[in-house]
Automatic annotation (TrEMBL):
It holds the Pfam family zf-C2H2. GO terms for biological process: regulation of DNA-templated transcription. It is found in: Nucleus. It comes from Clastoptera arizonana. This is C2H2-type domain-containing protein. Keywords: DNA-binding, Metal-binding, Nucleus, Repeat, Transcription, Transcription regulation, Zinc, Zinc-finger.
């Protein structure tokens, strides 16, 4: 059984069993089972990249992303296949490789139930469905490629607004809308112009600026 020398580490470990995620992001609805994971996630909102590569100067918002990147310089491949001598820089690449040995296909298409060894193969497959719109609204003739898009659309008929702002009384029928609204409270401006230093809290505002 697992043993820990600090109660803090034990508590973190227990949450991997219970599924508890007590640490919530103030910028979006993401939740985490460890505070360190929340802190790393928050950097993606703030654009902070404190971890710098000594070889090329590239910066990262997660230390493990830096560690993985450094292996592209050093050539280190610490993840070894137990079925053959193949070695990999990333554990995810090893897992994909092992699936070919075991025959496991964990990545499933939600539209046609096709299964794949690798996530990127599923993503390529999904392109074949882009022209298909199997999810039809029962209240009108609108059709959608994905079920979540249909669910968002149905709320325009029902008037349901399940997403409530924690800073004011505003409510929204789509999660993306509340995320945009929340930035008016937090001041976050994640969309940066590639031509100047201007930043915006909505992508549409950035697009208008670039025009």
């Amino acid at each position: 059984s697992a043993r820990f020398n600090q109660k803090y580490h034990l508590n973190n470990h227990v949450r991997t069993h219970t599924g508890e995620k007590p640490f919530k992001c103030d910028f979006c609805s993401a939740r985490f089972n460890q505070k360190s994971h929340l802190n790393s996630h928050i950097r993606t909102h703030k654009g902070e990249k404190p971890f710098k590569c000594d070889f090329c100067g590239a910066k990262f918002n997660h230390k493990h992303h830096l560690n993985t990147h450094i292996r592209t310089h050093t050539g280190e491949k610490p993840f070894i296949c137990k079925f053959c001598d193949a070695r990999f820089i990333r554990k995810t690449n090893l897992n994909d490789h092992i699936n070919k040995h075991t025959g496991e296909k964990p990545f499933k298409c939600e539209i046609c139930e096709a299964r794949f060894y690798q996530k990127r193969n599923l993503q390529k497959h999904m392109i074949t469905h882009l022209q298909e719109k199997p999810f039809k609204c029962e209240l009108c003739d609108a059709r959608f490629t994905q079920k979540p898009n249909l669910q968002n659309h149905i709320r325009t008929h029902t008037g349901e607004k399940p997403f409530k702002c924690e800073y004011c009384d505003a409510r929204f029928n789509q999660k993306s809308h509340i995320q945009s609204h929340r930035r008016t409270h937090t001041g976050e401006k994640p969309f940066k112009c590639e031509f100047c230093d201007a930043r915006f809290n909505r992508k549409t505002h950035l697009n208008n600026h670039i025009k």
